[in-house]
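README: folding subset

This subset contains proteins for which both the sequence and a predicted structure token string are available. Records are stored as plain text. Below is the entry for 3-dehydroquinate synthase (355 residues), shown exactly as it appears on disk.
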Amino acid sequence: MNTIESSGHNIYFDTKLAPLAEIIEKGTYSNIFVFADRNTAEACLPVFREMLDDFSGFDLIETDPGEENKNIDFCIGIWKTLLDFEADRKCLMINLGGGVITDMGGFVASTYKRGIDFINIPTTLLSQVDASVGGKTGIDIDNVKNMVGTFTLPQAVFIEAEFLKTVPKREMLSGFAEMIKHGLIADEKYYQELKAANYQNITTAAIHRSVEIKNEVVTEDPLEKGKRKILNFGHTIGHAVESYSLSKDKKPLTHGEAIAIGMICEAWLSHKNSTLSAEELAEIRAYISSVYPAYKIKEKSFDKLSALMQSDKKNEHGNILFSLLESIGKCTWNCRVAESDIRESMEYYNLTYVK
Ligand SMILES: NC(=O)c1ccc[n+]([C@@H]2O[C@H](COP(=O)([O-])OP(=O)(O)OC[C@H]3O[C@@H](n4cnc5c(N)ncnc54)[C@H](O)[C@@H]3O)[C@@H](O)[C@H]2O)c1
Ligand SMILES: [Zn+2]
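--- output ---
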């Protein structure tokens, strides 16, 4: 699969980390750190080492898995660990894990001693098609998603299908939601292909197409002044539902499950406030609900969800702004919608699974 060039760095596909071996062999880095969580240290580190001929010239920084740990306390721990290892500005951090690891590892690297190099090796579908591409790093504050972060690009990204073999089905589905989103916002043919293949048959070619779509958008608008906002389709309501679920539910939604809910709501908003046809709205709702489990957005949570949406980073001058579909494959951004419509879209979602 072709390497994708992205603003000064490469995104490699199924190279068995050969270009990384070359980088390491050059010996220009003073220290190499591998940042992983407990699960990826167990499932992915052996694969990583094997691909690099039993490479052991690194120090492992391991953290607890899960979104609830993508916070400043863990960052402080990692910064201190780097200091304990006397890491200087010439060291390299390799983020080996899902989006939590690439987001938090990227954030730690971009701020430690005002910035050290990092490389992303995304190991979940979600991080391969989305989180590790585009230069956003970040952490949550009080369960509110990605409130602190930087735009910093990695030195390289390595996407290896091999790592997906151990990813649980629920996590595969989480990443699949972002792929559906890429089709909905930018490429109707790709959306239809994904539908035909479904999540059980995800190919490197499909992952490559998702990365290509994301990369085209972020290259055009790296700092999210305009077009990049289309990548947030489903995320205004989705992020609010995800944050709420993280703070309230015993078994919180995954990012992709929350975005699937958000996409149904925001497809409704797209029909009401943009040009998405009733047929396409019905199509999107039927397909997404055939893949993702039912969830109830509790009516008593609507006020809290509105408050969460108010703190969304896409907002300007206090207005909640949405990215809405004009049709399947075409998305617009900076759309203002009435608060009553937001509520109605969530009521529409709640009726999705009612027979
Ligand atoms: N920076 C961006 O542009 C961007 C874009 C989308 C999402 N994100 C962020 O990404 C995060 C979600 O990413 P995620 O879903 O990858 O979460 P994650 O990193 O929490 O991974 C999900 C789970 O899978 C485990 N895991 C990872 N790789 C595995 C493997 N190969 N085998 C077995 N288990 C494995 C992890 O330990 C974790 O328990 C969110 O924090 C979201 O905000 C960032
Ligand atoms: Zn997302």
